[in-house]
Amino acid sequence: MIKDRELPDYWLTSGASHSGEANQLHKLPGGPQWGSKGYGNSLRIDVGTKIDDGYRPAGGSLVTTTGGSGLKDTKPPTKPNGRQKLPTERLLAILKRWELWAVLTIAICGGLGGASLAMLLKLPPEPDCENNVWAMISARERLYCAQREANLETVQGLIDAISHANALPQDHPLRAQINQQIEKWSELLLVAAEETFQQGKLDTAIAAVGKIPTNTRVAPGVKDRIKRWQSIWKEAQAVEQEVDKLLEKGSWFDAFAATQKLLSVGNTYWETTRYNQLNEIIQATQEEGKTLDNARRIAEAGGMKNLTEAIKLIENINPKSKIYKPSRNLIDQWSREILKIAQENLERQQWQDAIYIARQVPDSSSVVKEAEDFITLAQAQSQAERKTTRNLDDAISTAKNIGAKSKFYGEAQKLIALWQLEMKDAGYLERARTRAELGTVQDLKAAIIEAQKIAANNPLAEEASSEIENWQNQIDITEDRPYLLQAEDLAVFGDLASLQAAIATASQIKPGRALYQEAQNKIDMWRREIERSQDQPILDRAQQLADAGDLATAISIAQRIGSGRALYNQAQSSIFAWETEIRDRQTLAQANQVGNSATTAASLIQAIETANQVSYVSTVRSQAEAAIDRWSQQLFRLAQEQSNSDIAAAIKLAENIPFYAGNYQEVQRQIGAWKSLIEPPPVVNSPQPPLPVTNPEPEPLAPTANPEPEPLAPTASPEPEPLAPEGQTPPDPIQ
């Protein structure tokens, strides 16, 4: 391309204008002038363009363009009257210019040279290893791509490199080089697989070494390597399983100890990563285990409140936790215990309590569906409690919602069948109750007739029977109440005839009637009033004789009151007291006979024991006690006399004096003194000489004749004697 080249000033510019005028190229006056100032016009030419010219006024330009853009040519002004050249002539004139051909020659030669040099210096393109069709590339390109993949030094890269290189035929000229590379890559693949195994990727490592060709040097050791890996992995997994079992049992310290075995298994992943993970799991599980133990302690206390509280404590344990499964088992166990409590309330027909308790079973429990069915069954039973046709129909509809696979399906079906049977007769009972609400005898009898239509084998039969009995009682009361009121009015007078008339009137109420027992109670009361009025004079006469001292006659008269009479028990009580009094007097007389004639210690002891048999409530008890005190004094004097010759015998004799004797304390002090003589106290640092004990001469027993016992004065109501001293059992009181 020649651009902005200046033309000599002697060139004439010519061109055909659009009007057909010719421009002449002439030499300007003044000769040629070079430089920007020596030319009035300039020529712009693009190689390979079509020249189009036209007439322009002085100072105008010729524009010539390529593809319509034009080539701009600045021409000197033409003479207005000069001849313009034809386009062909003008083109020939341009083609004859040497500058044009020089430029074209240089451009063509330079372009060809540059293109040749570029082709010589350009490197061949690398094979496209990513998108190549391996069956259509050359062996060298295949080996190039294989080497490139092997240079990645990854397991997959080495596997691909071996696969691509080994795909070439065995008779390939480069086979020796290929095998050499495959040997090298196989060794690298075995090393990379070992690293993969140490990273904890057993399956990947085994799959990787499985790609090693069998004809390589490292191939024979592949099986042993895999066995070693699998053995290490199996050993590590066994340790992990042991840790899991120990965690489920709550043996935290044993679990920590078990993890130490991983430190020597021979795998980096198990010795570091998995070891740390297990220790973290143990620590987390230990904290959760404390929660589990606390929940167990609460649940052991029993009761719905404690069970629900225990469930809430462990309900949010992480599903990935090692104690998650035991916690679920405990939740299921405690949920069943909650259902058991609900069942107990259901059996007591406490429907709402049973439903509330069953709703405490958590949604996370495996028995939640069972709890839902239980609630449905309880709701149905609650609806059927009032045996109306509508309520029974609602109960049947509710119970039908329990599925065939439910634990309560069988019970629900039995209740449905029962309620369906009850619905038929429920109408009879409803109509009977409606009629009975009117309250008249006629309506009550009509209600009974309606209720009796219910079959005996119907579940409502018992309820109907109860209603019939209730309505019959109302009828009985309405019919018999006038008889009882009339009898009470007669009994108010209190005389024998009135009471007998009252009894006769009340006796018209027959057995089995509602007021029969009440009438019988009234009759018994009136009969007792009659018996009391008849027997009281007899008992009063007997008491008068007893007060006068004629106990035998008093007993004979009192025995006239027969068994079952109103005053019979009172008469028997008096008879017993009088018989006891006679027996006590006889006992005291016998004691006086022995004691007053006693000449030996044995006789005195016998007299004392006999006198003590007198009852404490007897009127002669004071006389018996006075005799006991007198005979005890005599026995004590005999013991004192015996102490002069034999202290041990004296002690033995004195010990026969009973605790209820008046001199019992004095005797015990003397026995102590005698024992101190026989068994002196141990010697101390400053022993004091014992004081001499002088036994006073006992007074001789005065000879006593058997005095006549004083006659017992009869007493009407003797005062009770004081209780016997501690340790003695008094005789049975008078019944």
What fraction of residues sit in β-strands? under 5%
Integer-rounded radius of gyration: 70 Å
Overall geometry: elongated
As an assembly, this protein is single chain
Q: Output the structural class.
A: mainly alpha
What would you note in describing this structure?
The structure is a single chain. The protein has 735 residues and is an all-alpha fold. Helix content is 59%, strand content 2%.
Would you spell out the secondary-structure blueprint of this structure?
Blueprint: E1 2-6, E2 42-45, E3 61-64, E4 71-74, H1 87-95, H2 98-121, H3 139-150, H4 155-166, H5 175-198, H6 202-209, H7 222-249, H8 252-259, H9 268-300, H10 304-314, H11 324-347, H12 351-358, H13 368-383, H14 389-399, H15 409-436, H16 441-451, H17 461-491, H18 496-506, H19 516-547, H20 551-558, H21 568-596, H22 601-611, H23 621-643, H24 647-654, H25 664-678
Antiparallel strand pairs: 1-2, 3-4
Briefly characterize the structure.
This protein is an all-alpha fold and 735 residues long. The chain contains 25 helices and 4 strands.
Which keywords apply here?
735 residues, mainly alpha, two-stranded antiparallel ribbon, two-stranded antiparallel sheet, 25 helices, elongated
